[in-house]
Amino acid sequence: MSEQADILTQLSTALTRRVASANSRIVTIRLSADRHLTGMLWQPEIVVTSEQSISRGDEFEVITAGGTTTTAKIIGRDPATNIAALRFVQPASPAKPVASATQAGALVLAVGANALGYATARLGIVNAVEPEWYSSHGGRIDQRIVLDIDLARNEEGGPVFDAAGGLLGMSTFGPRRQVLVIPTATIERVVPSLLKDGRIARGWLGVALRPVAVPDALGDMAGQPSGLMVMSLSDGGPAASAGIFAGDILLSVDGASTRRMRNLTARLGADSIGRKVDLRFIRSGEVMSRLATITERPTS
Q: Is the pLDDT assigned to residue 94 strictly greater than 70?
């Protein structure tokens, strides 16, 4: 056997072992008769999966490795970080996850689950690693990890491992079906709050917004070419109570430009609740400002 063939054989054997060991960490979440989603066993009684892809409901049939069928109940959802947590009726026994860091170019193994609860595998590389970022819903993700890998829709929500077997986090789809990783650090931070409260508290201004261009005549005064137009307000919400009207163009929140929606949602985390913020906006051809007190986002 040539040296090259020997190396490939060793790699193949190592990958097979990694996937076999991952079987105890994945589950199949049955969404309907012909649809399922992968879940990752996080604790003996807890499964985490993609919040954006699990259907609405309180209880799901779950198939564990070897085809054992049981049930699990939703105990918390956080659309902002795309994490949903379920609790098993009968606890399983996964190994404790070993967190791992990565860098661009590193080999990764994304594991999913098929309809019978057995592992599927995708081999690829890390396309990019960037600092923490905020989702469009305002969730703080500890790192932006982009994978150069194809993933079937039912494989979303499974574990992603590095070449040494360390857990990078949970696979998920980003914009244009780009495959991202919700890092282990983010899951470790979010899951305890979901177990305790079923949700993550976040700040709220009580406005529906849409990106718009700032009128040319007001560009110099506004100091930016675009903002967020207030389309509607919640009665008694922070923005309405501060004197904001539908049609106002929001330019900044506490000095942070609203040229991008994420600049706003990033400032509405749990620590923002109760804080007074300066809202700078355009109304009737003038730039104005009001103080608003951020409140907790309603549960419904």
A: no
